[in-house]
């Protein structure tokens, strides 16, 4: 059998917009990570950026299941002694919900230069307004499973 590899010139990238109102964080992050990597395309090549651009609006209306609002914690360290910063999910959602979504999606992309480049194709906004009308993004509706 013959296998053809994709060239970067032949890749067609699209723009998608997702309304995150009422969608569970993990389900949203996994679907967006697949779209950013291009794994939903038949031409997927692991070492080429063949993913699409994704715009997420209404990030502040995201949903977390169970007791994650009170129990989930995000850790950052400044690499200085005593520089550990611990934030709860509830505090982060109140302050900047877009950061919560970006962290979740970043964890699902590869930790390489290609993964960092694919993360730049993600745009998250807390309101329903975005600056990418010129790209004519398609509306992408995620299937929501009942819990």
TrEMBL record:
One of its GO terms (biological process) is translation. GO terms for molecular function: mRNA binding; structural constituent of ribosome. PROSITE patterns: RIBOSOMAL_L13 (PS00783). Signal peptide: none annotated. Pfam families: Ribosomal_L13. Keywords: Ribonucleoprotein, Ribosomal protein. It comes from the Bacteria. GO terms for cellular component: cytosolic large ribosomal subunit. PANTHER family: LARGE RIBOSOMAL SUBUNIT PROTEIN UL13M, RIBOSOMAL PROTEIN L13. Belongs to the universal ribosomal protein uL13 family. This protein is one of the early assembly proteins of the 50S ribosomal subunit, although it is not seen to bind rRNA by itself. It is important during the early stages of 50S assembly. Part of the 50S ribosomal subunit. This is Large ribosomal subunit protein uL13.
């Amino acid at each position: 059998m013959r296998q053809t590899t994709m060239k970067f010139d032949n890749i067609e990238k699209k723009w998608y917009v997702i309304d995150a109102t009422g969608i569970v964080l993990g389900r949203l992050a996994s679907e967006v990570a697949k779209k950013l990597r291009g794994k939903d395309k038949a031409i997927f090549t692991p070492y080429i950026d063949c993913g699409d651009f994704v715009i997420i609006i209404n990030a502040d209306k995201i949903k977390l299941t169970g007791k994650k609002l009170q129990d989930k914690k995000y850790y950052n360290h400044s690499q200085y002694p005593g520089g550990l910063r611990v934030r709860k999910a509830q505090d982060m959602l109140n302050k900047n919900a877009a950061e919560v979504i970006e962290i979740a999606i970043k964890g699902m992309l590869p930790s390489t230069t290609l993964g960092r480049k694919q993360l730049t194709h993600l745009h998250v906004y807390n309101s329903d307004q975005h600056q990418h009308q010129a790209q004519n993004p398609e509306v992408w509706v995620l299937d929501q499973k009942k819990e």
